[in-house]
Specification:
This protein is of the alpha+beta class. Helices cover 31% and strands 20% of the residues. The protein has 2 domains: 31 residues, no CATH class; 151 residues, 3-Layer(aba) Sandwich (Glutaredoxin), CATH 3.40.30.10.
């Protein structure tokens, strides 16, 4: 019995020294390692390949967007912080989605024209995806599932929900859609 307890304690110590979180469930040690966004690939609104590994070392704000939403004016704030911090290790990645009230009905071409003409958007915008349901894009599966992001389970509540990714590509915070991009808590996170 003493040997069994000693083996259990040693296993626990070894597991705790590894990167990640150690959880004991039903007398088994289960390690949850934090994954990152770098394995993901997608396409921009213009159809170009986009590799998230190109973001290594940067803080990233990922946001689901819509052109016909009461929160659409947040594009202005997103562009403002992008302009200020884009050369300081920060970027924004926008994902148009039509999951809420059919508020993003346009094509990728329509969305691109809308963003450029109305808000002067220059931060990277990806092709329209789904951020909820059975057809949820893999990047949003990562962002919303603790088993994949290592931080927390969440649900995309509405358009303009923000996910803050640290310089290691790991999810660090989930921010409400109603919180403006220029809010102090987002600015402080970018600057720290």
């Amino acid at each position: 019995m003493k040997k069994l307890i000693l083996i259990f304690i040693l296993t626990l110590v070894i597991a705790c020294n590894k990167k990640g979180k150690t959880v004991i469930a039903k007398n088994k040690i289960v390690e949850m390692t934090k994954q990152n966004i770098y394995p993901f690939k997608t396409k921009t609104l213009n159809g170009n390949d986009f590799d998230f590994s190109s973001l290594k070392g940067k803080k990233v704000l990922i946001v689901n967007t819509a052109s016909k939403c009461g929160l659409t004016p947040q594009y202005k704030g997103l562009q403002k912080i992008y302009d200020i911090y884009k050369d300081k290790g920060f970027t924004i990645i926008g994902f148009p989605a039509n999951n809420f009230g059919q508020q993003e009905p346009g094509t990728n071409k329509d969305i691109s024209a809308f963003c450029e003409q109305n808000y002067g958007v220059t931060f990277p915008m990806m092709q329209k995806i789904s951020v909820k349901g059975e057809d949820m894009h893999s990047i949003y599966q990562f962002l919303t599932q603790k088993s994949k992001n290592g931080l927390q389970d969440s649900e995309v509540a509405w358009n303009f929900q923000k996910y803050l990714i640290n310089k290691n590509g790991e999810l660090e915070k989930v921010i409400s859609p109603k919180t403006l991009p220029t809010d102090e808590k987002i600015i402080n996170w970018i600057e720290k």
